[in-house]
Amino acid sequence: MRPFSLSHLTVLDVGPPDLITLAAEAGFRAIGVRLCSPTAGGIEYPLQPGSSAMRETRQRMADLDVQVSDIEVVRLASDTDVDTYAVAFEAGAELGARRVCVNIDDPERARVIDRFGALCDLAAPYGLALDLEFMLWRPVARLEDAVDVVRSAGRPNGFVLIDALHLFRSGGDVAAVAALDPKLIGSVQLCDAPLASPPFSGIIEEARSDRLLPGEGELPLLDLLAVLRDDIPTAVEVPMTRRHPSLGPRERASRVHAATEGLLLSRRQRVF
Length: 272
Prior knowledge:
The radius of gyration is 17 Å and the shape is globular. Strand 4, helix 4 (109-123) and strand 5 (129-133) form a beta-alpha-beta unit. The chain has one domain: Alpha-Beta Barrel (TIM Barrel), CATH 3.20.20. The protein is built from ten helices and eight strands. Helix content is 39%, strand content 17%. Helix 1 (18-26) runs parallel beside helix 2 (52-64), helix 1 packs across helix 10 (249-271) and helix 4 crosses helix 5. The longest helix has 23 residues, at 249-271.
């Protein structure tokens, strides 16, 4: 089956190194780590290169056979100094990460393209690819917006991140993904949801705390997976604290792992 990782937003109340242990106990062999928050005052775990916390995290990764697949969230706003992310990129490289999730909070498209290109250049020496995420409440709101920025920046390590919830909530569909040059897609994030969107005022809350397990909702996830290459890095991002406030992080992660395995197994049976 397609390998998949645990997105940190699913269990954001646990940071490294304990995140490594939790992921392993839930059955995951790979995770994402939130080194930077996309919102002021948000939860983040800024591991410093060479620090004792970094050493302990890497030791647990080795002991428990868990990899860090990606780091997040690099935010580009109108006043962002791109160079400030060098430390996060160095930390990501030390963790063995290969990808970085990028969010945009700058409405000026020309400046976004320029700075995304500069960010790609900064990340390249660390062996990191940058995956630009689109979401309805940000200036890069739709799939076509993200594609425009990535194509215009023209960097070999610049890609688009497709989050299933954001794709369908922003009016996108499987056909739009299938029509893309596959080389533009850097990674995908899975979750589920009702097909009907909440009011715009509830979109952010749904995305951050009220998602459904893969296969639990109505999104056409199997159709989406069918048009994606099997080697595209796949994460499962299911923050559910509003829907299930009593569930601890270990139980959340375990449910996410079991549901995703079930979804991927059904896809395999559908193919064969």
